[in-house]
Write a structure and sequence with these properties.
Strand content: 5-15%
Distance between the termini: 28 Å
Largest sheet: 16 strands, mixed
Structural class: alpha+beta
Number of helices: 27
Number of strands: 20
Length: about 750
């Protein structure tokens, strides 16, 4: 919808009309007798514990992360009172009530996310859950997708929804003091943490219970007991939980990724777009991320309007770790630049919460997912403003609207003031007075800024090349990629016989150019790092060369390289780094031979392990996304293995286990691995050879060789693609293109 159409739509929209459209921008709209808004971990954990103590029948928990070590409070524990640790607390509850069952659905995360997580109790370590506490892991998502809903339901009568997981590194007070003594994970301190939850009861809680039951069924294949009959559950609302709204409709919006069994659901994104389009005067956002392309385009369209709304976005300053720094941070920078370019009337403002006393490179971890529009619409949920939350992960948000009710609008307005007062370290009334005096939210913020705790604008933005941005987008996908679609890329209809449009050719050429540019940029960056940074003082070319020669001279060195790939595949250590080391140590020819041999040895060992491991063990390792394509693997074994190795959609070791377990022939598996790994290994070998040259003298870099390598790998990939097509014609019956209904 263009800007004139949006203006016309808003002009004719009655304030009493609901923005919520079940089946379009929300799943359902359900009545809540009471709604409570919870700010920060101290308030939420206290409310959860109080509500859980009132449970008699069931507690349902959906989580991105769950930890039994989570500390719910820091009050002195009594002999007969509730334990402070979450796992002990849940066991205590179920021992007291024989009919109470707790069901916890946690995301079945990859190992790379396991550093800060508790080991699953199924491994035999740590917490031992009571037999009425049932812990399951959701592995039904597409590769690189996650279960991200954060929902707790008590007896189907009271529910919490928002951004909080019941895990460690979440508890904090609204003061967010830099030296808060209770903000510890074990013995390690963690940064101040800010997040939000919404509590609802009545039919709204029952609707959230339905969403939780559906996720449990989809993840485990087992149905939970149905909700209690109407009226069987009395109120579970604890006396300590404040009530902000009464007798109000609540809309629930979801994201569910597209799979082979279901179409994607994008209610979260649709509700964002409709809400932005409906705004008249002010959009206030708090969010952990700010990278969602379509949301950014909708905001940019509003900024281009002379009478468009003021848009104030509060995000955290830094990203978590190097991966987010090079993906989400890069994409956020691009979106901010896009919005500033569209901001012709000075209405876009992006800020971050700051507090004096934090260490350098540490910031308040703003984790909330909030939008308030015109004091009429309030939205809290699990969905970040990133692409993956719009179509890749499972999400759930809750929203309510004033619809002309002045009391509801006043409460939303007061809640916004409360949040800003916390960030600015002032009283809510001061925010209200400044807003009235200045006339804009940014004006009010500037008038109150400057304290030791405040909001600061994000000003200087790093410049990123298109190559870096293109690569960063891989870390924030908007949709899953299925193995069947990958196979279809190799089919005759798509790979060979279909005429490629000129626009698609231009995209292909652009992608190749970006990869070539990235290749040269990495070589140049490494060369500069070794020659112009302090790293050169102790890691100079001669020293690295000496290390490589010394290692290569050992008789056992080739065996070390050959053996290194197997544990690397298991723990998902980057294999190209081992290949680089082999090339620097042994030269390009022997290095390539050792690297490819090591990869094949690792593949063979994982295949043998899959032959002897119990089928249920392999089944648990595989995960639902890979299990769903086992028929494709059986039917097109060589083709499918090659496709998986060319563009891996599952961990290397897991693919070997599953291939053996489902009966793929060994020579099919090994040949598919060889063909699929050949282009990447060859490219890494050439890169390693030129890297060795760069260590000694950048002038030795042979750019002709690099260009030839890029072209050669491209031609090799094309040859493999054509060979796959010929195999496809021989193995697939006439008329069977591998397409499946979606």
């Amino acid at each position: 919808m263009d800007a004139p159409a949006l203006n016309e739509s808003r002009k004719h929209r009655d304030p009493g009309d609901s923005l919520f459209r079940p089946g379009v921008n929300c799943f359902t709209v359900a009545r809540a007798a009471r709604v409570g808004l919870l700010v920060d971990g101290e308030a939420y954990f206290k409310a959860f514990a109080a509500a859980a103590e009132r449970a008699t029948r069931s507690i349902l928990i959906l989580a991105w992360d769950f930890s039994s070590n989570t500390r719910l409070h820091f009050d002195p524990e009594t002999r007969d009172g509730p334990p402070a640790r979450l796992g002990d607390f849940l066991n205590w509850l179920t021992r007291r009530r024989r009919d109470l069952h707790v069901h916890i659905l946690d995301w079945d995360y990859p190992l790379v996310f396991g550093v800060d997580r508790e080991l699953p109790p199924t491994y035999g370590f740590g917490w031992r859950a009571h037999h009425q506490v049932h812990l399951a892991y959701d592995n039904t998502h597409p590769v690189s997708g996650s279960h991200h809903q954060k929902i707790v339901v008590i007896d189907d009568a009271l529910a919490f929804i928002g951004g909080f997981d019941l895990t460690e590194r979440r508890w904090d007070t609204p003061a967010h003091s830099p030296d808060e003594p209770h903000r510890l994970c074990g013995t390690a301190r963690y940064p101040p943490f800010h997040d939000l939850m919404m509590a609802v009861d009545g039919p709204a809680a029952l609707a959230l219970a339905g969403i939780a039951r559906a996720r449990w069924l989809g993840a485990t294949g087992h149905a939970l007991p149905p909700p209690a009959p109407p009226g069987a559950n009395s109120s579970r609302w604890p006396a300590s939980l404040d009530i902000d709204f009464t007798d109000i409709d609540v809309a629930l919006a979801r994201t569910l990724p597209e799979t082979t069994l279901q179409a994607g659901i994008h209610e979260v994104e649709a509700l964002y777009l409709d809400t932005i389009a409906a705004a008249r005067g002010l959009i206030y956002i708090e969010n952990q991320y700010f990278t969602a392309y379509r949301i950014g385009e909708a905001l940019a369209a509003r900024l281009a309007e002379p009478d468009g709304p003021e848009i104030v976005v509060v995000v955290r300053l830094f990203s978590h770790g190097w991966l987010e720094e090079h993906t989400m941070h890069v994409l956020r920078t691009r979106l901010i630049q896009r919005l500033r370019a569209a901001d012709h009337y000075g209405k876009f403002h992006i800020l971050y919460p700051h507090i004096d006393g934090l260490d350098e490179n540490i910031c308040i971890d703003l984790h909330s997912k909030l939008m308030i529009v015109d004091d009429e619409i309030l939205r809290i949920g699990s969905a970040n403003l990133c692409n993956r939350s719009m179509g890749m992960d499972t999400e759930c948000d809750a929203a309510l609207e004033a619809r002309g009710d002045p009391q509801v609008a006043a409460t939303i307005h007061a809640f916004r003031n409360e949040l800003l007062a916390e960030h600015l370290d002032v009283a809510p009334q001061q925010v209200e007075d400044a807003f009235r005096q200045q006339g804009t939210l940014r004006g009010a913020i500037d008038a109150l800024a400057g304290r030791t705790r405040t909001l600061k604008p994000i000003e200087r933005l790093p410049e990123w090349s298109e190559t870096v941005i293109e690569l960063a987008s891989v870390g924030d996908p908007a949709a899953p990629v299925s193995l069947d679609r990958l196979i279809e890329e190799f089919s005759p209809e798509v790979a060979v016989e279909e005429e490629v449009a000129p626009r698609d050719r231009r995209k292909f050429v652009k992608r190749v150019a970006l990869k070539v540019g990235l290749f040269f940029a990495v070589v140049g960056a490494l060369t500069a790092m070794w020659h112009y940074t302090p790293l050169a003082a102790w890691v100079d070319a001669s020293r690295i060369t000496a290390w490589a020669e010394e290692f290569a001279g050992r008789p056992w060195a080739p065996l070390v390289i050959l053996a290194a790939y197997t544990p690397a595949c298991i723990v998902m250590f980057p294999r190209p780094l081992i290949t680089l080391a082999a090339v620097v140590a042994f030269g390009p020819f022997l290095g390539f031979a050792y690297a490819l041999s090591g990869i094949l040895v690792a593949a063979l060992l994982t295949y043998v392990a899959g032959m002897y491991l119990p089928r249920h063990t392999v089944h648990s390792f595989a995960g639902r996304p890979l299990r769903r394509v086992t028929e494709t693997l059986r039917r097109r074994s060589l083709l499918a293995v090659t496709a998986l190795r060319l563009v891996p959609l599952a961990p290397f070791a897991v693919e070997g286990l599953v291939a053996a377990a489902i009966g793929i022939r060994l020579w099919h598996f090994m040949l598919g691995t060889l063909i699929g790994m050949l282009p990447g290994t060859l490219a890494t070998t050439i890169f390693g050879d030129q890297l060795e040259a760069a260590l000694n003298d950048p002038a030795q870099i042979n750019y002709t060789v690099l260009a030839a390598a890029v072209v050669g790998v491209s031609l090799l990939t094309l040859a493999v693609r054509r060979w796959l097509v010929s195999q496809h014609r021989e193995t697939v019956p006439h008329g069977d293109t591998g397409n499946r209904p979606r």
